[in-house]
Design a protein that fits this description.
This protein is mostly beta strands. Helix content is 6%, strand content 47%. A 4-stranded antiparallel beta sheet has the order 3-2-1-32, with no helix packed on it. Strands 4-5-6-7 form a 4-stranded antiparallel beta sheet, with no helix packed on it.
Length: 397
């Protein structure tokens, strides 16, 4: 080989080696997905990718639009997350590569979403133009659009969208006062079952972990509406009616959430809209069991994974505090104040730690659940929701 050829070969090898080095640098390290999660940074349209075993942030993904009321679901493999933004954006994230896989704007104002039990369909619940849209989870190609036109002939916002076994989604129509179930076969149009006149202004909904009980809170009246989905002929039933009767209703600055509700054994612990109380519903009898006085108006009532405790955060202006309800006694046993504007909390899968977003302190606290001590702080930009990939295996999350 002449000198020129030798130099050319050497240069090529050098370039190839450099390219290989750069490719190697870009390759994410091998890691599992079970301890990964996301923290929503609502003010900046970004999310932090977190690793719960090490209690660290791995990096930030930007460009997700309006995340002022964002929610997230995960694929069954836990690698992909689907972010539902307030601007109608639906964004598919790759957690391992920490990047946007695909993003579309499917509506004008969306309020949440769900993924089917087989992981193949992603449904989005919309305020504008109302109704739900369903997409292929792999490509985000639209599969179906179901307008929410109630029996009154008017378009309605949709809320309380969750998945059910059998490629089904259940959700509530806020303006129409209805609950619909959409069932998707392997082909053809979805089959929609409608329950009319369920109550005034259903504002949120969720399903129990056994996929039996769907409940929606009613903002236009005191109470909840219940469907027993195990029944051969499910019927609408009102429960916890009149819990504000004879009492003044406090202003509601932030709507309570039923996502992550306090399901423990045979009870549900629910936030009371308009009262400083948590309501206990007996799932065997569907009757009120107790009202628990608490620090403020509850927003989230989140059960520890073993069901032994329920942790609560609160709406403005009492939103600096977290309280813990002991389930056997149904009493508040501990209160503490993490900081200004506690917006969300999420337990690790076995419940040994809880991650708490403290929005106005720009951080997330990691706490030892049993010792009630802080283990770590994660800096974040106006954090709100915390979502862990292990949620992929929980119904109604």
């Amino acid at each position: 080989m002449n000198r020129r050829g030798f130099l050319g070969a050497g240069l090529a090898a050098s370039l190839l080696g450099g390219a290989a080095g750069r490719a190697e640098e870009r390759t994410p390290p091998l890691r599992g997905t079970g301890s990964l999660g996301l923290i929503v940074e609502r003010a900046t349209g970004s999310v932090l990718v977190i690793e719960t075993m090490q209690r660290i942030s791995l990096g930030r993904i930007e460009g997700l639009g309006d995340l002022s009321h964002a929610s997230i679901v995960f694929s069954p493999c836990e690698r992909y997350a689907y972010v539902f933004g307030r601007d109608g954006g639906l964004t598919k994230l790759d957690l391992l590569e920490m990047r946007i896989e695909k993003r579309i704007v499917q509506g004008g104002n969306s309020i949440g979403g769900a993924i089917s039990d087989d992981g193949r369909l992603v449904a989005v619940s919309n305020y504008e133009p109302g109704g739900i849209k369903v997409f292929d989870a792999g490509t985000l190609t639209e599969v179906a659009s179901i307008p929410a036109i109630g029996a009154n002939g008017l378009a309605s916002k949709t809320v309380g969208l969750v998945d059910l076994p059998g490629r089904r989604f259940v959700y509530s129509l806020y303006d129409a006062g209805e609950i619909w179930i959409a069932e998707f076969g392997e082909s053809g149009a979805p089959v929609v079952t409608k329950f009319l006149n369920v109550g005034l202004l259903p504002y949120d909904g969720n399903v129990t972990s056994d996929a039996r009980h769907y409940l929606a809170g009613l903002f236009g009246e005191d109470g909840f509406v219940h469907l027993d989905l195990w029944s051969a002929n499910p019927k609408v039933e009102r429960v916890l009616q009149g819990y504000n009767a004879g009492r003044g209703k406090i202003p509601v600055y932030k709507m309570p959430h039923l996502e992550g509700w306090g399901q423990t054994a045979n009870d549900l612990i629910l936030p009371a809209a308009g009262q400083h109380e948590a309501l206990v519903l007996d799932l065997e009898t569907m009757r009120e069991k107790k009202r628990i006085p608490v620090h403020g108006q509850p927003i989230f009532c989140v059960a520890r994974p073993d069901g032994r405790e329920v942790w609560l955060n609160f709406g403005h202006p009492q939103n600096d505090t977290v309280q813990i309800i002991d389930v056997p006694t149904l009493e508040v046993v501990h209160s503490f104040a993490p900081g200004p504007a506690v917006l969300h909390l999420e337990f690790t899968p076995r419940g040994h730690e809880v991650w708490i977003s403290v929005r106005d302190a720009d951080r997330v606290d990691v706490m030892d659940v049993r010792r009630r001590t802080k283990l770590a702080e994660i800096p974040a930009q106006k954090p709100s929701g915390i979502f862990l990939a292990a949620r992929a295996h929980r119904l109604g999350s």
